[in-house]
Specification:
The chain is α+β, with helices and mostly antiparallel strands. About 25% of the residues lie in helices and about 30% in strands. It has eleven helices and 33 strands. Strands 7, 22, 23, 24, 26, 29 and 31 form a seven-stranded mixed sheet that branches. Strands 20-21-25-30-27-28 form a six-stranded mixed sheet, with no helix packed on it. Helix 5 (about 535-555) packs antiparallel against helix 6 (about 570-590) and helix 9 runs antiparallel to helix 10 (about 685-700). The N and C termini lie far apart (about 135 Å).
Length: about 725
């Protein structure tokens, strides 16, 4: 009978794409493929806006099974000892058409988590002020269609099962469950006959497709003979799909007999009682010595001798490992029998690293091995190690190359000359991982039959390796409920963990950038002096506030070694932005020459409104342009009022216009142009310093002169001391009369 298929549809909301500068710019999509899926179809839709700012663009899409794709669009270097395998990717061009729709089909996909990452080309590095320009929106959406078989036949191990392929267009799908500790699997096809009882030709596909690498096993069976396929280290405790398709041209059925058998592996490990004792001892306070302590130390010695006598009958030796969840995407693995594990040549030592919670694939798995040189008596012996997913490598030698049935592991080796080995797996796929260790000798296993090595194992899962180093910041990213981490690099450093120094700034350049951005604020000193000399003490106080917080904000904002933060970074940034906008506000109102009581009311009210708007959106252009425009309207209205009242242009002096106002306005316009259109990530430290200098100089030019009826520093004249600064009004009146 025909099999029953069910189609399902999964969709996620569209995301706005960004130009790529670090992994946080890539938009991630997370899907879950159900079991017994025989066909997976991705619907990829990319579109762009219709404005004149929208140009031809190319969208890059990456696929990966089990974890987010590891990508490198910038061609930077990865950290040493990191494993990097290229991702499966394709490009969607947005040329003449404003939309691109692409389908990607995958037959017999692996069940579990699938990830898609999409991004635009490399970012130009230009710093755009929010509101000055409207970027073109590029939108990407991924939808998933699956075709699932509801009644997939189950192949029982050791039981021959007759099956029928209805036609070449309808392949046969069967699944078999791989038990734990399965060392090998053998699949046989017998009695392959067509409906006319003739010899047939079929193709057998064992396993599912995983991207970027797929390890499906394919064998073609011709004629009525037994056809077999053997697998070493099949994935433990998983369903394995088998697809059989007819290669005949006639539209007829084909009958086959299928048989699956497994080779069991007998593991050896310490007793559960001893593991329980060591776990309790590690989690409680140490007890006083005595008979109890002596008895507990005698038990492991007796157990060790017992295991050594029976080691030949085991295909592997398991070491108990405890998983400790420390934080988000942060796990530590602790060995119950101590950090050192014994490694022999008779059978591999196996450690299980559990990463199958579904939330562990967004970090980096770090495995650090250290060989105890004194424990290894043979100088030419090698301790081989292999880190693999889904199933362990049960025979470590040069011919196996650290590979299992459907996974290419990561090999490591240690010897007395190089006793340390390290492995970094970036975004490890969701699965159970295994660490296998075995002692190898160049002249054969007989040479090191009685030898044993001690290897200290440190294994942990961290969001970012080495916390992105001194020139990077580890950021925790989120897509719906899925969390993953990425490094944002500074000071010209790049790479996955900010370890690529090919474009890095030297320490001298970093110090020069910090000095330029901080010392350029000292150009506010002339403006403060001019304001104080003309009795604008409130304005001088605002300029002092701006100079202080701008100096220490830029000292704290620098990457690398030239950094000094006197308080929280967010507080310094807010105070710097607030002081900058309020300085412009009070300067323009001071130029308006309104009444003092009205001026100070506008000072306070405007400062409160500016503080509120900066809290809502700190980088919005209207937070600066809004107060400026409103203050300019007040100034123009006040100048028109003064001109009408005096019946001539205000300000009336041509020297005031030529030597003060026009230079100040010119400096202000140049400063705004530099700030809005010329700043990039590379030239920020000197273009922003120019902005500081130009704004401070324009303030010194634009401040109005002192009131003619007010003498400089008028406050000392009110002191009743010394006759030479006092006047005798009675004598003057008497002289007049």
């Amino acid at each position: 009978a025909d099999s029953l298929y069910v189609s399902e549809y999964f969709s996620q909301s569209a995301q706005k794409l960004s130009f790529y500068s670090w992994y946080g710019n890539a938009k991630l999509f997370h899907f879950h493929v159900p079991e017994d899926t025989v066909l997976l179809r991705w619907l990829l839709q990319a579109s762009r806006g219709k404005g004149p700012e929208c140009t031809d663009m190319e969208v890059t899409v990456h696929f990966r099974y089990g974890a987010p794709p590891v990508i490198n669009p910038l061609g930077t270097r990865f950290p040493a000892n990191a494993t990097v395998r290229p991702s499966y990717s394709l490009s969607l061009a947005l040329g003449g058409a404003a939309q691109n729709t692409t389908f990607v089909n995958i037959t017999t996909p692996a069940a579990g988590d699938w990830f898609i990452a999409a991004h635009l080309p490399e970012a130009a590095g230009r710093i755009e002020v929010k509101g000055f320009s409207t970027p073109c929106p590029y939108i990407f959406q991924a939808d998933m269609f699956v075709l699932r078989l509801t009644d997939m036949p189950v192949l029982e191990p050791g039981v021959a099962m007759p099956l029928t392929i209805l036609s070449p267009a309808k392949p046969l799908h069967v699944k078999v469950f791989v038990p734990k500790h399965a060392a090998g699997m053998r699949l046989e096809l017998r009695s392959c006959l067509t409906r006319e009882q003739k010899a047939c030709a079929v193709r057998v596909v064992l396993g599912s497709i995983t991207l970027p690498q797929s390890f499906q096993r394919i064998v073609t069976c011709l004629g009525n003979v037994t056809c077999s396929l053997a697998l070493d280290s099949p994935p433990w405790e998983k369903w394995l799909q088998i697809m059989v398709e007819s290669l005949g041209t006639a539209n007829g059925s084909v009958s086959v007999v299928m048989l699956a058998s497994f080779t069991a592996c007998r593991p050896g490990s310490a007793s559960s009682f001893l593991n329980f004792i060591s776990l309790n001892q590690s989690q409680t306070a140490p007890r006083a010595g005595g008979a109890g302590a002596a008895g507990s130390s005698a038990l492991p010695a007796a157990e060790a001798s017992h295991n050594e006598s029976q080691q030949r009958s085991f295909c592997l030796q398991t070491q108990p490992v405890v998983r400790e969840d420390l934080d988000v995407v942060s796990v530590r693995y602790r060995l119950l029998n101590g950090p050192s594990v014994p490694v022999s040549s008779l059978s591999p030592t196996l450690l299980l690293l559990n990463l199958n919670t579904g939330m562990d694939s967004g970090g980096s798995l770090v495995v650090n091995l250290l060989l105890n040189k004194t424990s290894l008596s043979l100088a030419n012996a090698t301790v081989a190690a292999c880190v693999s997913a889904a199933s362990p490598v049960l025979a470590l030698n040069a011919t196996r190359n650290c590979s299992t049935a459907f996974f290419q592991g990561y090999p490591l080796s240690m010897r007395t000359s190089s006793a340390e080995a390290m492995l970094i797996v970036l975004y490890p796929q969701t699965d159970v991982w295994f660490l296998s260790l075995q002692l190898l000798c160049p002249k054969g296993q007989g040479e090191c039959k009685a030898a044993e090595a001690k290897v200290t194992v440190f294994a942990y899962l961290t969001p970012c390796f080495n916390d992105c180093g001194p020139y990077g910041q580890c950021s925790l990213l989120r897509r719906h409920g899925y969390l993953y981490a990425g490094c944002s690099c500074k000071a010209g450093w790049g790479g996955w963990s900010c370890t690529d120094d090919s474009k890095a700034q030297s320490v001298g350049v970093q110090n020069a950038a910090t000095l330029l951005l901080t010392l350029s604020n000292l150009m506010f000193l002339p403006a403060i002096a001019v304001a104080a000399q003309r009795c604008y003490l409130v304005e001088a106080s605002v300029y002092t506030y701006t100079m202080f917080f701008s100096t220490f904000y830029h000292a704290c904002d620098q990457p690398g070694v030239a950094v000094m933060c006197i308080m929280d970074y967010d507080t310094l940034q807010y105070c710097d932005f607030l002081g900058s906008v309020v300085s412009i506000w009070v300067t323009i109102l001071c130029m308006a020459r309104v009444k003092k009581i009205l001026k100070y009311v506008l000072f306070v009210l405007g400062t409160l409104l500016i503080a509120m708007s900066l809290q809502l959106d700190r980088r919005g252009v209207w937070n600066m342009m809004g107060p400026c425009l409103f203050a300019l309207i007040i100034m123009i209205a006040a100048w028109v009022h003064h001109g009408v009242k005096r019946r001539h242009c205000y300000p009336s002096s041509w020297k005031r216009w030529v030597f003060y106002l026009l230079p100040g306005i010119t400096l202000a316009f140049i400063a705004i142009s530099v700030y809005a259109f010329m700043e990039t990530n590379e030239n920020y430290y000197y273009t922003h310093s120019i902005w500081h200098v130009l704004v401070a100089c324009s303030v010194a030019f634009l401040l109005p002169p002192r009131d003619k009826h007010k003498k400089p520093w008028a406050w000392p004249q009110k002191l009743t001391c010394r006759y030479q600064i006092c006047q005798n009004d009675r004598e003057e009146l008497y002289a007049v009369t």
